[in-house]
Amino acid sequence: MKMLLDPMGGIVVTNDGHAILREIDVTHPAAKSLMEVSRAQDESVGDGTTSVIVLAGELLGVTEPLLDRRIHPTQIVQSYMKVLDDINEILRNLAIDINVDDDAEVARIVRTSIDTKFVSRWGSMISDLAIKAANIVRVKLPNGKYEIDMKRYAKIEKIPGGSLSDSHVLEGVMFNKDVTHGRMRREIKNPRVLLLDCPLEYKKGESQTNVELTKESDFAAILRQEEEEVSRMCASIVAVRPDLVITEKGVSDLAQHFLMKANISCIRRIRKTDNNRIARVTGATIINRTEEINESHIGTQCGLFKISKLGDEYFTFLTECNNPKACTVLLRGASKDVLNEIERNLHDAFCVARNVLLDPRLLPGGGATEMALAAELSKRAKIQEATVREYPFKAAASALEVIPRTLAQNAGADVIRVMTALRSKHAQGENFWGIDGVSGKVVDVRESQIYDSFVVKEQIYRAAIESSAMMLRIDDIVSGTSRGKAGQEGAAPAVDEETFGDSRDG
Ligand SMILES: Nc1ncnc2c1ncn2[C@@H]1O[C@H](COP(=O)(O)OP(=O)(O)OP(=O)(O)O)[C@@H](O)[C@H]1O
Ligand SMILES: [Mg+2]
């Protein structure tokens, strides 16, 4: 784990690769571009952000001796691209198919994604949350494929206090709001829900609006106009007999009065994103003009609307939904720092659960895949027709060993012994031997159930190799900033105008 101080003086405690890199401040352009790789990894597959950086760094490190031996970078890059093709082919042979309908099998992979994390102490709890959430959010598209949009439809709500074991996935959503008026109903069974994204009050002007009044009676007329408008809007709402009205905008006192008379509870100023989730869980349609409301817009899939107090704040729960298709994961924990790290871990688990449900293939974890690749690549290095090609192949093979080596180090094992044992196993073609991260022993990962998702691994190798190849193609850093700024430690030295022109031509 790393503890990071941010410029504002706050602290972040994490071992999530992307979260660490996001916080640190680097000036070297090459380092900056490597950090982009980890961000891209986080966005595309959500896991493996540490591995990709470690591997890319190592791939660059092993080329240094090659460059010293005057092998041209272009040749190294070409070989690396061949290595990438070979890796993809080897990976396809190593992949194991699983059955996504078997929750236990999915759970094992999701567990591996968080095994090296803070939350691993709570066993399968976090992975169960992730799988449950992913299954709720999963919808079948007309073309037979699945769509799992965790970012939009699975929300994580962190509430400090309580214990982690109180965390759960709601069959519905919750948000930090209370009814607008204390005397409205706070608990309704099978509510009829109406969602709006328009205000139930006078319309505010787009920008500054001036109204000039000359007579006192004009003012009264304006107020009456507003009153009539609000009462007309409320009348059209009351006509469809909802129990609960939720709007993204404001609700005036007058509108509250009309709604309360009709025994309707009302919640105002919720976020657009929350409203979208509510629409998914209740089956309601979000309406923009009150005149258009009709029966089909009312949501009736929700079983229970309830407002409860957690800590000292009120939260609205819309739960017991039938076929929710969106959910909230309620996280409880000792402090904010702990909750933030749990959220990051859960995000990884979400992504792995999603990846596995979308592409049900696995690869052995615990460094086994990397060792298998290294063994196979060294074998192939010998049969390269062009002799120089052999060296980058070997170098890439040894770079891949950084993953098992790091795992061994972090498990407190005797690194040299473990690596030698692993190498000899893989030389005999036993592809499933890796490191148990808890005991530090060399084990068959199939027995220890350490698996990673195929998409994540594939993406790690591709991103690491492509980014290091791109770095290798660079022969000079030319600074576009002024001499004063660029002179900082680690930054590229400032270059004269003329050289700038030259390098670009070259
Ligand atoms: N119980 C375990 N024993 C051995 N290796 C494990 C175990 N659990 C996970 N691993 C390995 O740890 C690696 C993943 O580590 P980790 O999740 O910390 O980093 P990451 O996925 O690269 O980045 P991120 O910080 O984004 O999660 C994988 O190679 C995986 O196979
Ligand atoms: Mg991970």
Features:
single chain, 506 residues, alpha+beta, GROEL, domain 1, GROEL, domain 2, GroEL, four-stranded antiparallel beta sheet, four-stranded parallel beta sheet, elongated, binds adenosine-5'-triphosphate, binds magnesium ion
Structure description:
It is built from 19 helices and 20 strands. The protein has three domains: 209 residues, GROEL, domain 1; 100 residues, GROEL, domain 2 (2-Layer Sandwich); 144 residues, GroEL, CATH 3.50.7. The two termini are 44 Å apart. Helix 12 packs across helix 15. The chain has a four-stranded antiparallel β-sheet with strand order 8-15-14-9, covered by helices on one side. Strands 12-11-10-13 form a four-stranded parallel β-sheet, sandwiched between helices. The chain has 506 residues and is an alpha+beta fold. Bound molecules: adenosine-5'-triphosphate (ATP) and magnesium ion. Adenosine-5'-triphosphate binds next to helix 1, helix 3, helix 5 and helix 14.
